[in-house]
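Hi everyone,

Forwarding the result from last night's run.
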Amino acid sequence: MSFLTSLASAFKGGGFSRAPLSRCYSAAWASAFDMGPRAFDYRGAVARAFLDNPVAQRAVRLVAEGVGGAPMAATDAALEKLVTAASAGQPLLETLAAHLLLHGNGFLQIVKDGAGQPVELFALRPERMAMVPDASGWPSAWLYRVGEKELTLPVEDEEGWPAIIHIKAFHPSDDHYGAGCLSAADEAVATHNAAARWNRALLENAARPSGALVMEGGEAGTLSTEQFERLKAELEGAYAGMANAGRPMLLEGGLKWQSLSMSPADMDFAELKAAAARDIALAFGVPPMLLGLPGDNTYANYREANRALWRLTLLPLAGKILSAIAEGLAPWFPDARLAVDPDRIPALAEDRERLWAQVSAAAFLSDTEKRALLGLDIKGASQ
């Protein structure tokens, strides 16, 4: 360890011993670099949910785009420019929110110029990251793998300042990785996709289940193997599929077509699909009404649902991301503060108006105390 590193570590409080950490090898986000069993296939789940399922994709987009477009209140213009810039062509906050929502982990690489000042924040794909622990289990570096290429990213640079900002959701049984919403929604996504495939299969066959060919009497009473295979091929080629729906069938040799109808229990797939859609919305923290799900009366109206989305999902997630970024960049912006400005959110206008009226009517409070209660800069009270 160099003298500068030792000195920086001493000023940062690195002299104390940390409690040891350990991985949970049965966690959902087991990395390709670990030797433990995998409990969850993240890439496959993303393909099933975000790429194939309209409910899950819309829920993720609502949350990610809401966080990315939230009005920001920053005390430093340079820091605000860093946070609001694009990362690889995508909005930084929107990308981070999607990573946290799906994977449970968000990683930011701090790119610096020759003077050691941050010039860009780059969002790294979380499924490509693997932690390299030290003797106590704390992260000493991160491995980033793309195909056959592998890059080691230090947690801190040579001067002892942060190089990687790790933002994670809470995981009760893993010290290093967070738990995303996708693992909780995976079963509901699979159910919803299966119901959609079932519905499509019915539509391709005139919205009816399959029937049965019944042989009436005859000398043998059964079909030979050759007759059975020929009849099966003719049915699949001439009568199966959407293009052959409603086509008349010509039967001979004592054959009779017996249609099969669905019982009320078989018709429950529609209700099952709606229930799975509500479970998906629940996992991602989006009110079902905002996803256009029919028959959902959880909220009195759309305005209340939109307000609940901001209060229960968007504001906590945005606060988590912004506070983590501000903490990681504290060596360069020690007095800066990042937060969402609730006064500029249309969905919360009524709540803020009520709060302003209550605080303004409190005659026993000074202007400084009123500004503090409203979350405003108290320096403006003396101006």
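The chain is about 40% helix and 15% strand.

Cheers,
N.
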